[in-house]
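Hi L.,

As promised, Mobile element protein:
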Amino acid sequence: MEYGIVIPQGISTLRKAIPDLLEDAENTLSSYFRELLRELYDEIVHFDERIETIELKLKVISEQNEDCQRLLTIPGVGLLTATALIAAIGDISVFKSERELAAWIGLVPRQHSTGGKPTLLGISKRGDTYLRTLLIHGGRSVVRVAHKHQDKRNQWIGEIKKRRGENISNVAVANKNARIAWALLTKKEDYCVIGA
């Protein structure tokens, strides 16, 4: 903006705009700033290539692992989430129930009880932050398109979204996906939608 050049927000528009800025000899960019911008752009290109290479490696790993393939059948679980779950969990038999896995990730409500009356609070956020973030982002993508489908799962999501709001429904889907992951890995089955 110092040079009177404005680029719209977003990494994709930035990737397209920088080469044009560097080639345009008539703009008011100083030679030092041009050199700095070129170096930063080269870093972006380098990181894009690294990300692409790592994603290809993860794809090969997931194709060779049956458990990863099972997890990829869950709506809202993608390549990063599936491989991260497999890497973090290791042996699924360590978790005695699906709730134990969800609690380990930090997706279950905290409890406070007094006088024998339990009160459920917000999610505990204890556990693996990275896995929790991936699952919640996956839940967000499922919630965003739930209104387009009429199966039981998406109706459940719609009801929660109406009652409790979008953020809580995102976490509810993430919690459900963690529990489904435990069931699939324990029973060695693929996910299938019932009532679709």
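Strands lie at 109-114, 117-123.

Thanks again for sending the construct details.

K.
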